[in-house]
Design a protein that fits this description.
This protein has about 280 residues and is mostly helical. Helices cover about 60% and strands about 0% of the residues.
């Protein structure tokens, strides 16, 4: 019979009266008390935790996006590369979470769907911040947050600063690449429109990676992130279709039809379009 292991013998701290513990540092009690199902349905807990954990990962993604932009603006692209790689891995985690939610059947969801009221994932202000931060600036999506002046102010502040893609292109310009002046001085609040001049710049980078290695690596980091981001959107679509079919969303959207339109949105279009002409 194997004797029981006593961690104290190896020096582990076992008494936390008046000292910081694991639960104290992570505020575990607060986190675990944040799940408040509104119905008696078994699967509502899954639904709540799925979305709460997604918001936590988005919190980290925003932290990394902010740091990556600051690094690019300060001409420290290699620091940004690590952050961008981490953001892609965060979205890999977000993608995996859909696999758990897909264990919920239409019958399961129907037991608590009415309890959601008009709440819907497209109302996530953190998700909107991520889209604004990387360059998808749809001003219409300010409206779902109009009832919260603090959130509106935060989103407006994001719209006033260069996006991740803007900072990437400004870096290329400082490195001597001919980014069009109209792009460098564009209205930051405006939605991004694919630009032939920008595509030509990225083509220059891809045709001679050795001469533009940092720009080339930056491009691939951006593509890597968007790849995972697109998969996240696609997994969202397939999960919703699997669970509710073609019903309208709880927030009033057309549901699956709305989500499928979102699949057509490109964050860094020139980086994808240039592959056809290389």
């Amino acid at each position: 019979m194997t004797s029981q292991i006593d961690p104290a013998r190896d020096g582990a701290q076992m008494s936390f009266d008046g000292r910081m513990s694991y639960g104290d540092y992570l505020q575990i009690d607060r986190i675990l008390s944040a799940q408040t199902p509104l119905t008696g349905a078994h699967d509502e807990m899954l639904f709540i935790i799925q979305h709460q954990t997604s918001e936590l990962w988005m919190r980290l993604a925003l932290h990394e996006l902010d740091a990556a932009r600051l690094a690019l603006a300060a001409d420290r692209p290699r620091e940004a590369f690590k952050m961008l790689a981490r953001i892609a891995r965060i979205f890999e985690q977000l993608n995996s979470a859909w696999d758990v939610l897909r264990t919920m059947t239409p019958a399961d969801y129907s037991t608590f769907r009415e309890g959601l009221g008009q709440s819907s994932g497209f109302q996530s202000w953190q998700y909107r911040l991520i889209e604004y931060a990387v360059g998808n600036r749809n001003l219409a999506m300010l409206r779902p947050h109009a009832h919260r002046p603090d959130l509106t102010a935060r989103l407006e502040a994001e719209l006033a600063r260069p996006s991740l893609y803007d900072e990437a292109l400004r870096l290329l310009a400082r490195r001597g690449l001919p980014v069009p002046e109209a792009v460098l001085t564009r209205d930051l609040r405006a939605a991004w429109a694919a630009d032939d001049g920008v595509r030509a710049v990225w083509e220059t980078v891809y045709r001679d990676p050795q001469a533009h290695w940092e720009a080339y690596e930056l491009a691939e980091k951006l593509v890597d992130f968007e790849d995972y981001f697109r998969r996240w959107r696609f997994n969202h679509v397939t999960t919703v279709e699997r669970v509710i079919g073609f019903k309208r969303g709880t927030g009033g959207t057309s549901g699956i039809h709305y989500l499928k339109r979102m699949l057509e949105v490109e964050l860094f279009p020139e980086l994808w379009h240039l592959r056809t002409t290389l």
